[in-house]
Design brief:
By secondary structure, the chain is α+β, with helices and mostly antiparallel strands. It contains two helices and five strands; from the N terminus they run αβαββββ. Strand 2 (49-52) and strand 3 form a beta hairpin. The chain is elongated. Helix content is 18%, strand content 40%.
Length: 96
């Protein structure tokens, strides 16, 4: 009996991402709909937002893909001043 995978989206942790991606795309026939996040490009900062909340900064950063293009993902971060340094508390990564 064949397994019907229509409507499924795999979310797996793998050791060799390029090899796993090729297997799911080429062998199983899944469509690649998003690329992995990459280093932030200058354009990301133009569309990101931040606000002071009396005790910390709330920041929403638009993420980029590995190839430098804008992605549809946003990273939420809280930034606290601790002495002479800063503490970063990452939140969720999501599609707004």
């Amino acid at each position: 009996m064949a397994l019907d995978t229509n409507g499924m989206a795999p979310l797996l942790q793998v050791y060799d991402m390029p090899e796993a991606l090729a297997f799911y795309r080429d062998v199983l026939g899944y469509e690649v709909v998003s690329a992995s996040p990459g280093p932030l490009n200058e354009k990301s900062w133009d569309t990101s937002i931040y606000i002071w909340m009396e005790s910390h900064w709330q920041v929403l950063v638009d993420l980029s893909t590995e190839d430098g293009k804008s992605s549809d993902l946003v990273l939420h971060i809280r930034i606290y001043e601790v002495g002479n340094s800063f503490e970063f508390e990452p939140g969720m990564i999501y599609v707004p």
